[in-house]
């Protein structure tokens, strides 16, 4: 169950020795870096907005304390007089630990030699056990950027295996290449060269090495490298995916659109995990880690009291559309915003290349999960309001394909089969026979009913889609108590 537990941060890949030295020079390994501007649209117009960093926000909003430690020769060394600092009351559970694995790679602080990812995973396991012992916590949270997520997965799948759920409460990853790093069509030879030479362990992101450090057999299908191998529940993982490739470095030219500039969206999540899409690049001043969107998803996933799974079910097109042989797929655009926040939780759009592509026949016969949002009582605009409110902005667009080629002349940009906004208020558990929910298809929260309808806790909450292009279809909410920070 979520709550306040120690948090261990694991940073991403430093490709050059200079990047290693710069990383080691930062006490928080870069997780302390914030931002002062955000992109506001496809034109790239900047908006000035200060974000202090996820570490500072966790300290300010949730009372966490920093602790500095590193692992060397199988033991943990505290670096900043923490033993004296916490000698009286002991280490609090609300502590932040940064896994400083590049200290050993530094020519100034270590021997300049890189450890492979299996060794890093083992050292991370040593740090986790140390943190549990010192804080008295039963589990830790792991928060990782880029390659750091692969280090965490190697710990879970290669080191701890079936013991992982007892140690790791949740895993949150920013822009992690869970299925490797791939280059755009026509540049596949660069992947082969990278994996052959393995300069500075860059082959870590290729299928051969991933199979090894994730504990998969050598013939494992490379399209299934984003699976956890049965060792850890994927619903305890959150994958934050960047959709802005234009604000990254030269790597964006090799990776191309449909990525964060380094990791393609289709390879940036654990299969079965919660996931969110945000218009951010892989790293840098406009990167995914130092973003308000990233922080909001992080704190809610770790500390939220209630989760709401949002899915589409049984969507059936009108007969004239079903008879169109070229309309076999649909694009689903989903934006979720929470009242009181100045940012979106997820934003999947056609123009960003992040809209969900679904088979029309499969969606008619089954369902598709769009997003899982997490609600926090402490983040409501009014302290007396017992409802948490959020909006789902949904669009369904036609996607015409013939002979595996998209027929762009069949579809005008912005043309849609369905478009509407569902505003939802979910009340705290009041001990009744169900949960009070007030909701309506509307763009204005003020138009919501004054009181909620009570739904049995075991039931899905359904809202019919109304459109001249659809025979039927439901937007379905599945609400679950998560325990929260209590």
> Quick one: CATH superfamily of the largest domain?
Alpha/Beta hydrolase fold, catalytic domain
| SS strand fraction | 25-35%
Strand order of the largest sheet: 4-7-1-8-9-10-11
Our count of domains comes out at 2
Give me the CATH architecture of the largest domain, please: 3-Layer(aba) Sandwich
Instruction: Summarize the main sheet.
Output: 7 strands, parallel
Number of helices: 12
Briefly, what CATH class of the largest domain?
Alpha Beta
Estimate the helix proportion, in percent: 10-25%
Low-pLDDT ranges:
none
C-alpha end-to-end distance? 10 Å
CATH fold assignment of the largest domain:
Rossmann fold
The radius of gyration is 23 Å
GO molecular function, one term: hydrolase activity, acting on ester bonds
Pfam families: PGAP1
Protein name: PGAP1-like protein
Domain GPI inositol-deacylase PGAP1-like alpha/beta: 134-180
Task: Describe what you observe in this structure.
- It holds the Pfam family PGAP1.
- InterPro entries: AB_hydrolase_fold, PGAP1-ab_dom-like.
- This is PGAP1-like protein.
- Residues 134-180 form the GPI inositol-deacylase PGAP1-like alpha/beta domain.
- One of its GO terms (molecular function) is hydrolase activity, acting on ester bonds.
- The longest helix has 19 residues, at 117-135.
- Helix 4 packs across helix 5.
- The model has no long low-confidence stretch (mean pLDDT 89).
- This protein has twelve helices and 24 strands.
- The chain has a seven-stranded parallel beta sheet, with helices on both faces. Strands 13, 14, 15, 17, 20, 21 and 22 form a seven-stranded antiparallel beta sheet that branches.
- The chain starts with 6 loop residues before the first strand and ends in a 5-residue tail after the last strand.
- It has helices at 17-24, 54-62, 82-85, 117-135, 147-160, 164-167, 188-197, 207-213, 251-255, 292-303, 319-322, 360-365, and strands at residues 7-10, 35-39, 46-51, 65-67, 69-72, 75-78, 95-98, 140-145, 168-174, 237-242, 274-278, 306-317, 329-338, 344-348, 356-359, 367-375, 387-399, 401-402, 405-406, 418-427, 435-441, 453-455, 461-464, 470-481.
- The chain is of the alpha/beta class and 486 residues long.
- The chain has two domains: 7-303, Alpha/Beta hydrolase fold, catalytic domain (Rossmann fold); 307-481.
- 21% of the residues lie in helices and 30% in strands.
């Amino acid at each position: 169950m979520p709550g306040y537990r120690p948090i261990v941060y694991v940073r991403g890949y430093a490709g050059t020795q200079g990047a290693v030295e710069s990383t080691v020079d930062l006490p928080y390994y870069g997780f302390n870096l914030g931002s002062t501007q955000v992109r506001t649209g496809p034109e790239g117009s900047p908006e000035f907005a200060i974000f202090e960093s996820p570490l500072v926000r966790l300290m300010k909003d949730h009372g966490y304390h920093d602790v500095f430690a590193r692992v060397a020769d199988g033991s943990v060394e505290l670096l900043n007089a923490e033993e004296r600092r916490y000698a009286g009351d002991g280490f609090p559970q609300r502590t932040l630990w940064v896994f400083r694995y590049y200290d050993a790679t530094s020519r100034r602080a270590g021997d300049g030699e890189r450890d492979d990812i299996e060794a890093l995973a083992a050292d991370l396991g040593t740090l986790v056990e140390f943190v549990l012992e010192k804080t008295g916590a039963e589990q830790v949270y792991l928060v990782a950027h880029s390659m750091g997520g692969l280090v965490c997965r190697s710990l879970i799948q290669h080191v701890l295996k079936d013991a992982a759920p007892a140690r790791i409460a949740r895993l949150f990853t920013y822009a992690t290449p869970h299925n490797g790093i791939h280059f755009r069509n026509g540049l596949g030879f660069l992947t082969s060269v990278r994996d052959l030479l393995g300069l500075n362990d860059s082959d870590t992101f290729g299928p051969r090495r991933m199979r090894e450090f994730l504990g998969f057999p050598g013939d494992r299908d490379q399209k299934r490298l984003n699976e956890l191998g049965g060792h850890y529940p994927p619903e305890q993982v959150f994958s934050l995916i960047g959709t802005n490739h234009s604000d990254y470095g030269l790597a964006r030219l090799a990776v191309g659109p449909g990525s964060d500039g380094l990791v393609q969206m289709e390879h940036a999540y654990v299969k079965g995990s919660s996931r969110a899409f945000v218009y951010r690049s892989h790293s840098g001043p406009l990167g995914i880690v130092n973003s308000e969107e990233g922080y909001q998803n992080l704190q809610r996933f770790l500390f939220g009291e209630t989760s709401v799974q949002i899915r589409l079910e049984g969507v059936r097109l009108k007969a004239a559309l079903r008879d169109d042989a070229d309309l076999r797929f649909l694009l689903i655009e989903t934006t979720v915003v929470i009242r009181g926040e100045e940012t979106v939780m997820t934003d999947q759009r056609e123009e960003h290349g992040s809209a969900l592509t679904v088979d029309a026949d499969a969606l008619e016969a089954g369902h598709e999960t769009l997003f899982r949002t997490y609600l926090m009582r402490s983040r409501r605009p009014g302290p007396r309001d017992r409802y948490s409110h959020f909006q789902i902005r949904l669009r369904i667009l036609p996607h015409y394909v013939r002979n595996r080629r998209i027929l762009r002349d069949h579809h005008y940009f912005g043309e849609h089969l369905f478009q509407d906004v569902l505003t939802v208020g979910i009340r705290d558990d009041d001990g009744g026979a169900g949960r009070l929910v007030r909701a309506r298809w509307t763009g204005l929260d003020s138009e919501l009913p004054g009181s909620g309808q009570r739904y049995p806790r075991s039931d899905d909450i359904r809202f019919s889609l109304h459109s001249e292009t659809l025979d039927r279809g439901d937007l379905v909410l599945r609400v679950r108590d998560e325990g929260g920070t209590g």
